[in-house]
Structure formats: structure tokens, C-alpha cells
Amino acid sequence: MYCVRCGRAIPAGSFFCVYCGAQAVVAKGFQPARPLPPTAVPYVVLAPPGPAPLFLRVTGLALGTLGLLASLAFAVWGSQWLESPAEPLVNGPWTAPVGEPLQLSLPPLATPGAFGTEVEAIATARKSVVRVETDTGSGSGIVLTADGYFLTNQHVIEDAKEISVILPDGRRLTARLARSSTTPDLAVLKATASDLVAATWGDSDGLQLGQTVVAIGHSLGFQGSPSVSRGIVSALRSQSGVKHVQTDAALNPGNSGGPLVDLRGTVVGISTLRIEREGLYAVQGVNFAIASGEVRKWLGQ
């Protein structure tokens, strides 16, 4: 059966077209004497339907064109949005470090070796993870040198008048700011200490997409041992001249300044921010760490 207006095939037994509402007619040469049995083919195909009316074709073409333009606009907007997740972190090109000359040598890269398990990597790395507390909040950090230099994010100690570093063994040290910059978001702290376990550094330039990484930090202000989360290297991105490691390893408030480590337990990034967006365009698992290569470059300035 076909519609008398648009010529489209419609289900047998229908009195009106399901597309345009016009009266239905039986195709030429076919006149059922009674309703079709349940086993009949649902559509009666005796001849191809005629062309749709001109106004329907013009309307369809116009709607298709508008849909294509909307899709292209959405794709462009989406690509720009995805490429700018870390923009709130930085304010332009590299910011020169401010503060005292650091009495430390550039942390050496670890000798390449075989990967271990997550448990082994965490056991190695957590010996160098510290909690950073200020009069304005708290975050995480790592031990740079055995004699009391520590690394964290600049935003962790921003506007702080008092800074303390809590070591893995529970000791609390009073620290002062030695150097900081907003781009990259890094700060070096100094405290009087000795015999600390310095973090081991990995080469972020050698990271592979899909490689397992672990984030360690004192998230949500929990006391005691740091929290850990497991993920993969999702992407390697450069934002305003600073390389970042994108990962789906969970980062929560308090993780800032803590290490992102590979399965050798070596630091390949410093956790710094996550992307938050709710509603129709909710974001999940888009987190960033400053690449270890950028950190070492900054320390060497």
C-alpha cells in the first residue's frame, strides 16, 4: 500500500499514511478481499514509490544542511574545549623562578630497569611522599634531597604564612619557601633535616600511551598514610609551553604536589589539577601532572 500524497509504502491495513497523514490506497493491481493474515509480509511491495513532493525534498535538503553545519560547529567547539583544559593553571609563557639560589644539584634520572608491580612501585615511591600543611590548606609533596629540600605545587603554598612538612615517619618540620613560579605551577621548600629518602626520577619523554601509572598523595586531608590511585597515560599535552601528562588516575583535593610514578616507582610527573564539569558535558578521568622533564628543566634554571 502507498500514500496518495507522498507515495511512500505504508503498512498493510493502514487507512492513513504514517508519514504525512494522507489517505492510504492499495497499490495498483492488488486488492485484498480481507485483512492480511499475521504471517503476511508487513509491507506490500509491488512497485517502487514515486518521488516525494518538491516541498518535502527542499525541506529535507535544508534540514540536512543545517544539521551538517551544526555538527561542524560542535566539532570545532569540542576540539577547542578539549585542547584547553589546563589553561586555568597557567598565565602565559614560562615564569622565571623567584627566590634564593637553590643549593641542590639536578635530580638524576633513574637507570632504566624492569617494571615491577603496583605494590612494589608504591612501596618504593611512598618513602619520598610528604604532606604539606599551611595556614590556608594542605597538599602533597616529594623529597628532593636528603638534606631537606621538598617539591610541591605553587598553589599549595600560595599566600601561606606558615608551612609545615610532615614526613612519612610522622615527623613535622617547619619549612620556608625557597623558590616558586606560577608557570609551571611549582615550588621548592626548605627545612632543616637529614637522611631523608629522595625521590627517584623517571624520564617523562619515554612514556607510552596506555602505560600504567600510579598517583600518590594526601588527598582530602586524610591523616596518616597517603592515598594511591591507578590509571594509565591518557595523553601527553603541552599547555602554554609546559608539558603535562594526562591520566585517568584519580586525583582529589590534597593530591596537588604529589608524584605520578611509573611501575619502577620513579617520578614521571607532579600531580597538579583535574578537570571538573557536570551536566550534559560532564567530564570524567581527565587529570594532569606536570611532566618530570619539565620539572627537572625548571629546577636546573
Q: Provide the low-confidence segments as ranges.
A: 27-50, 79-96
% residues in beta strands: 25-35%
Could you say which overall geometry the principal axes of the C-alpha atoms support?
A: elongated
> Regarding CATH, which class of the largest domain?
Mainly Beta
Total helical elements = 4
Helix/strand-derived category reads: alpha+beta
- What pattern of helices and strands is seen along the backbone? EEHEHEEEHEEEEEEEEEH
Secondary structure tally: strands: 15
Q: CATH topology of the largest domain, anyone? A: Thrombin, subunit H
The strand line-up of the biggest sheet is 4-5-6-9-8-7
Structure description:
It is elongated and about 90 Å long. Helices cover 16% and strands 28% of the residues. The chain has two domains: 51 residues, no CATH class; 213 residues, Thrombin, subunit H, CATH 2.40.10.120. The longest helix is centred in the N-terminal third of the chain and has 29 residues. The strands form three sheets. A six-stranded antiparallel barrel has the order 4-5-6-9-8-7. It has 301 residues and is of the alpha+beta class.
Topology:
Layout: E1 2-3, E2 24-25, H1 54-82, E3 98-99, H2 118-125, E4 129-134, E5 138-143, E6 149-152, H3 154-157, E7 163-166, E8 172-181, E9 186-191, E10 212-217, E11 227-239, E12 242-247, E13 259-261, E14 267-274, E15 287-291, H4 292-299
Antiparallel strand pairs: 1-2, 3-8, 4-5, 4-7, 5-6, 6-9, 7-8, 8-9, 10-11, 10-13, 11-12, 12-15, 13-14, 14-15
